[in-house]
Each structure stands twice: as structure tokens, then as C-alpha cells.
Amino acid sequence: xxxxxxxxxxxxxxxxxxxxxxxxxxxxxxxxxxxxxxxxxxxxxxxxxxxxxxxxxxxxxxxxxxxxxxxxxxxxxxxxxxxxxxxxxxxxxxxxxxxxxxxxxxxxxxxxxxxxxxxxxxxxxxxxxxxxxxxxxxxxxxxxxxxxxxxxxxxxxxxxxxxxxxxxxxxxxxxxxxxxxxxxxxxxxxxxxxxxxxxxxxxxxxxxxxxxxxxxxxxxxxxxxxxxxxxxxxxxxxxxxxxxxxxxxxxxxxxxxxxxxxxxxxxxxxxxxx
Length: 274
Ligand SMILES: NC(=O)C1=CN([C@@H]2O[C@H](COP(=O)(O)OP(=O)(O)OC[C@H]3O[C@@H](n4cnc5c(N)ncnc54)[C@H](OP(=O)(O)O)[C@@H]3O)[C@@H](O)[C@H]2O)[C@@H](O)CC1
Ligand SMILES: Nc1ncnc2c1ncn2[C@@H]1O[C@H](COP(=O)(O)OP(=O)(O)O)[C@@H](O)[C@H]1O
Hints:
Oligomer: single chain
Binding site for (6S)-NADPHX: 40, 152, 216
Protein name: ADP-dependent (S)-NAD(P)H-hydrate dehydratase
CATH class: Alpha Beta
Bound molecules: ligand NPW, adenosine-5'-diphosphate
Pfam families: Carb_kinase
Enzyme class: lyase
Catalytic activity: (6S)-NADHX + ADP = AMP + phosphate + NADH + H(+); (6S)-NADPHX + ADP = AMP + phosphate + NADPH + H(+)
CATH architecture: 3-Layer(aba) Sandwich
Largest sheet: 10 strands, mixed
Shape: globular
């Protein structure tokens, strides 16, 4: 176990250079829930864009498109009608976030299964985790080692009942071993664990993050770094630290919408121009 210090991942943060264009910089997709629950995906998408993904596209059920379209600018939008269509439409993505406000139903299971067949690194959060309560093996069967699960303690218990009794660090490591994916066990001291045994505990947790939607922002931040091909463990560590730093810098009154807007300041403090 180590402390999640920027020294671990700072040198691996992705920055654009003169030859970069938006497609080479990294394409992030975020899958939205239904028309009455699109805010979570929009938060994730904006966070991914702020983290440097060159192109971010929301994928939504057809009836949600008229809700989302007036609420996005740089972020693009593609409706999909079923899981097969989602798999086709997301083929070009480097990373995908799925789960925030996705719905606790078979459509979410089918969508995760469908996108897992493609090459994109996945960040699976919220309903994308909870929907596998009692059948976590179905989720683990479709994961790759570059995928990232981001459970809070409630979601963790649904996927790994009783495991938390071992303590948060051991539990996160064992969960990562079982899932064969990176696990981000969220909380005041978020633990990031990888299947190869890497494990880091986040030291700069900010209680201002105890507000609805802050986890959705974190999933988009991780996705933004994955889209830029950062190693998944490093991406999860970097996003977790930057997320907390942004919340501390904003302080009282912070809501989740403020977090993406704080990211440039934190990123600037980590950027070392040549
Ligand atoms: N703008 C939007 O559209 C937003 C949409 N959102 C979306 O809404 C969906 C459902 O969200 P949700 O809050 O109802 O579900 P979930 O977080 O599972 O809580 C259910 C129960 O779990 C328990 N629990 C135990 N430990 C916990 C912990 N550490 N943190 C939190 N809970 C913990 C706790 O039980 P208790 O402790 O109260 O008995 C709690 O009552 C989901 O898809 C999400 O993405 C949100 O992201 C917000 C912004
Ligand atoms: N008291 C706290 N101290 C530090 N971080 C917290 C605290 N409460 C919540 N967080 C952080 O806020 C985020 C909440 O995520 P989550 O529970 O998934 O929220 P949501 O589903 O509303 O987006 C996580 O990154 C978690 O680590």
C-alpha cells in the first residue's frame, strides 16, 4: 500500500503537443440514462472534456435526445435504440463511462455487455454496478484489466458482500483480484486497487464532495484520462486526487456542477511545460 501522491502519476499525465488533433487526443463516450435522468451523464461528460479528452460524445436513448441537446455545446450527442446499436455507435471510442443514472434494469445489463465487446476502456459506476447485485460474476465475466469500477461503500457491498469486513484496503485489493479490473473504493480515504497488486490510499479527501453527482464527475474524470490512454490505475489515482483537490479549492457551497470548472486550476498546478 502507498499514499496516492502525485509523484506516482504526474509524469504520466497526458498533455497535447503540436501534432495532436482532437481525435488523436482521445475520444470519450458517456452513456446517458433516460429522459428524466440525464444530469449524471452530462456531469461525467463535461468532466471528461475538462480532463482533456479531445472529443466527448453522449450516447442516449432516443427520447432523451431532446432533453440533452439544449444542455450541451462542445459535447456531441448520438441517440441509440438498443444495445446492439450502442455497440456499433461506440466502436470508435477510446474510453466509455456507463452506469450513472443508467437505470436498474436489464437494459443497463445489456448495454454493459454490448460495449464490453469493443476496444474501449470502461468506467462502470452507480447503477452499472448496483444492477449486478446477486450476480456479480456476470459483470466480472465481461471486464478487461484496463476497466475501472468506481463503487461507493453501498455499491461495493452489493457486488462484494461481506468483503469490507477485511478493512478497506484488503477489501479493495481482493475485489480487484476477483473482478480483474481496477477498483476505486470511494469514501473519505478512497482506495485504488489494481489486479496486479498495486494499491494506493488517497490522502486529500474533501468532505465538500458529499454532494449528489460528485461521483458522476469522478467517473467522467477517469474516463477522460483513459481516453488519452493513461494507464488505468494511474488514471484512477490521478483523477481521485485532482477531484478532491478541486473540491477543497472551491470549499463551502460547492455543488457537483462546480467541479469540472475547477479542473483547469488544478491541472495547471500539475502541468510542467517543456
Ligand atoms: N444528476 C443526476 O441525475 C444524479 C443522478 N444520480 C443517480 O441516481 C441513481 C440512484 O442514486 P442513489 O443515491 O439513490 O443510489 P445509491 O448511491 O446507491 O444510494 C442508495 C443507498 O445506498 C446506501 N449507501 C451505502 N453507502 C453509501 C455511500 N457511501 N454513499 C451513498 N449511499 C450509500 C444508502 O442507504 P442508507 O445508508 O441510506 O441506508 C443509500 O440510500 C444512480 O444512478 C446515480 O448515478 C446521482 O449520481 C446524483 C446525481
Ligand atoms: N465525507 C466525504 N469526504 C471525502 N470524500 C467524500 C465524502 N463523501 C463523499 N465523498 C466523495 O464524493 C464522491 C461521491 O460519489 P457517489 O457516492 O458515487 O455520489 P453520486 O452517486 O451522487 O455521484 C466520491 O468520490 C467520494 O469519495
